[in-house]
Design brief:
This protein is mainly alpha-helical. Helices cover about 65% and strands about 5% of the residues. A hairpin with a 2-residue loop joins strand 1 and strand 2. The longest helix is centred in the N-terminal third of the chain and has 25 residues.
Length: about 160
Amino acid sequence: MHKPVILTIFTNLLRTGLGLFFAVTAVLKIPQLDQTADFLTRSRLLPEQYSLPLACVGVGMELLVGICFVLRKTYRAAALWGGVMTAVFLFLYVQGWVRGLELSCNCLGTQHMIINYPLDTTLRVLLFVGVMILIWDSRHRQTSLWKFRSLDFSDM
């Protein structure tokens, strides 16, 4: 059964848009890994010595997921990793809000203090919902409208 064309267009735009968002955000964070590590340190969940390695892993994962979304390579795995990644970021923001921590965000290459936790958390929830749609889409791929046959010329 084929997905409606409008749904296919929507999921392709969402996949490409989120892929570009993740890739650009990661590239902008690379020269500022210390700020991402500072965010993790201020979250007070793990010892400070883990902040920089986790920042490197997080930015690398963000870049990889973004590239995979744009190129639609290993789409299902990228969607699942994107879901894990956005869930972790959402958890970090919510626990910071609940605990009354002063966190800063290194979003799109600009460092700023989070002063409106409801807005920032809502934006991360929307990002998470977008990735959940892509997880659903990756499990319900539309088959091609064209039928391709494999031709075997090995007997020639």
